[in-house]
Amino acid sequence: MGFDVLLKGSNMLRLLTGLWVALRISLISALISIVLGVALGSLMSLKKPVITVISRIYLEFIRIMPQMVLLFLVYFGTTKALGINMSAETASVIVFSLWGTAEMSDLVRGALGGIPKIQYESSFSLGLTTFQTYFYIIIPQIIRRMLPLSINLITRMIKTTSLVMMIGIVEVLKVGQQIIEANRKSSPNAAFGIYATVFFMYFIVCYVISMLSKHLEKKWKS
Amino acid sequence: MEEILKISGLTKSYGDLVVLDHIDLSVKKGEVVVLVGTSGCGKSTFLRCINALEKIQDGKVLLDGEVINPAGGKLNTVRERVGMVFQSYDLFPHKTVLQNMILAPVKVKKVSKKEAEKEALALLDRVGLLTKKDSYPHQLSGGQKQRVAIVRALMMHPEILLLDEITAALDPEMVREVLDVVVSLAKEGRTMLIVTHELSFARAVADRMIFIDGGKIVEEGAPEDFFNHPQTERLKKFLDSFTY
Amino acid sequence: MDAEVLISYFPLYTKAFVLTVKIGLIGIGIAFVIGIAAAFFSYFKVPLFSQLSKVYVELFRNTPLLVQLFFIYFGLPKIGIRISAEVCGAVGLGLLGGSYMAEGFRSGLEAVAGSQTESALALGMTRGQMFFNVIFPEAFSLSVPAIVANVIFLLKETSVFSAISLMDLMFTAKDLIGLYYNTTEALFLLVIFYTLMLLPVSILGNLIEKKVRYKMFGA
């Protein structure tokens, strides 16, 4: 069924290296998204009209545009419009960060709005300063609400990184394709084994991470 | 007895709407004052003004001769001397009962953790919740949460305790357990300013009753006179609304 | 941007748009059917089927559509299962969507109170009647926000169809960029057509969500 190809030469290692390329892009983008998303989300909860309008348009555009279209816009569009020749990997990180920041900021805004006013007041009543209130009371609660959702975002990002092969990045799926091509004669059925393997690689990574998020959610349920 | 809280000419308004209109009130040490009035009469706002959770437009609030001025600095030192318990259970959901209680003493008063824990356990024991010390708020009933909120406020050794309709959100069978705690605090001589709708409780615990209507103190007096011989028409009407 | 180029590309995009929407809708239809079935099995804990649907949901929720399509389109023929690109697109989207829909319905079902079950059974309904007449409609309205999000997600996912040589919007754009280098026009039309496809769904979704919410809280 074509699983034998995996054992030939360094094929398995090549696939794993490809997987790492995909994971690296998603982890870097997730990190950027969390930082920028917290900043934008906090800005949005200030409810300033200008920020609200701009962020609404940005969020809605990202919400309805497929990541694939965004990839094309940034990768081909910027080269054409700005004359910048950016690497496919840079373009991917930009696109995933734009997407992640939008999602993250919405989560942060929701989490901030979801902390009842009484939490601030009862903290003040006990004599805590504004800084202490945020540090001990508000931020820990926001982190608890957001962590499972952020982890969820990371798994979605990992799944979406499979798209970057379409702009020429050699990640796990592309490596799989190359292996199948190279072994066309000796193992004509490699496509089944290789793609099944890639399928399970993604599954294992995402399943483990989503279990972690479920575990945290259960643990912190209140 | 010495006067601990003195309020003079306190005025609070939202735009043109005057909620509290030049209120004067003084509370002596160890006195239990109960405020009643129709909903929306401004009694909860009054408590919030005393604790500087609301800005006031006129007048002043003095605690032990020191001005509480919402516009000025140094608010926190005053707030830690005023304890407040709210209607909604305001425990911090990410902290256990014990952590809820020791947070402010350790962070604000810099009491050692060990000492704070010792005191917290003693207080929990007193309100019958020692076994719940490591529970999280969502594992407690409403009545239990409110008892924790009261002892959490006591941890700061407040000179005066403000209770804002602390039983209003509770199921009837839980009201009793919370009010019992308040009665025992009154007996040991705590100074308290209480807003409540539980008139029989008010009667049992109050040294002095105050009726607020339309943002003003309409009538005040000892519970006996207040309930049996109301002087004003408005208080009569208010008390009548509670009888069937 | 060249207006003439835009006009000349327009028919190509329209054709691709129709194809994308068609396969997208068929896929979403399949997703609903699979999702309801999987939710039904797990709600009644039907032996074997409930375990199978759990495995299915986890497998497809935790893998990318592109990888699923590659496996179905290039991998399965090697063991004798051959399907056209169009069928593959619809089935792939349906399988992916089914796993998401199942999760959405499951949480809706969990939220419907147990007393509803009892009162339906007390009225003499069979368990099947109860599920389809009482429990599911209620759970469905609770699941609306999740369903709306899933539909938008699935319509966006159609953008990977080009990888299995379906002549969808992405394929058309990529083709035109490669052939004529009119990148700006090609990308502009791509954004316009995806906006045409998804903005109405997004707006409609928000409206439905609001309506359901009002209904739930009786306001």
Question: Could you describe the 3D structure shown?
Answer:
The complex is a heterotrimer of chains A (222), B (244) and C (219). Chain A has 222 residues and is an all-alpha fold. Chain A has a single domain (4-219), classed as MetI-like fold (Orthogonal Bundle), CATH 1.10.3720.10. Helix content of chain A is 78%, strand content 0%. Chain A has helices at 11-44, 49-64, 67-82, 88-113, 117-125, 130-160, 172-182, 190-219. Chain A starts with 10 loop residues before the first helix and ends with a helix. The model of chain A has no long low-confidence stretch (mean pLDDT 87). Chain B has one domain (3-240): P-loop containing nucleotide triphosphate hydrolases (Rossmann fold, 3-Layer(aba) Sandwich). Chain B is built from 9 helices and 10 strands. A 6-stranded mixed sheet of chain B has the order 6-7-8-3-9-10, with helices on both faces. In chain B, strands 2-1-4-5 form a 4-stranded antiparallel sheet, with helices on one face. In chain B, β1 (3-14) and β2 (17-28) form a beta hairpin. Chain C is an all-alpha fold. The longest helix of chain C has 41 residues, at 3-43. Chain C is flat and about 70 Å long. The mean pLDDT of chain C is 86. Chains in contact: A-B, A-C. Chains A and C meet through α2, α3, α6, α7 and α8 of A and α2, α3, α6, α7 and α8 of C.
Q: What pair of chains forms the biggest interface?
A: A-C, 44 and 40 residues
Largest pleated sheet of chain C: none
Name the shape of chain C in a single word. Answer: flat
The percent of residues in helical segments of chain A reads over 70%
CATH level-4 homologous superfamily of chain C? MetI-like
Q: Which spans of chain A have pLDDT < 50 for at least 5 consecutive residues?
A: none
Uncertain runs of chain C: none
- Terminal-residue CA separation of chain C: 50 Å
Helix/strand/pairing class of chain A, anyone?
mainly alpha
CATH architecture of chain C: Orthogonal Bundle
CATH architecture of chain A: Orthogonal Bundle
Percent strand of chain C: under 5%
Order of helices and strands of chain C: HHHHHHHH
Tell me about the largest β-sheet of chain A: none
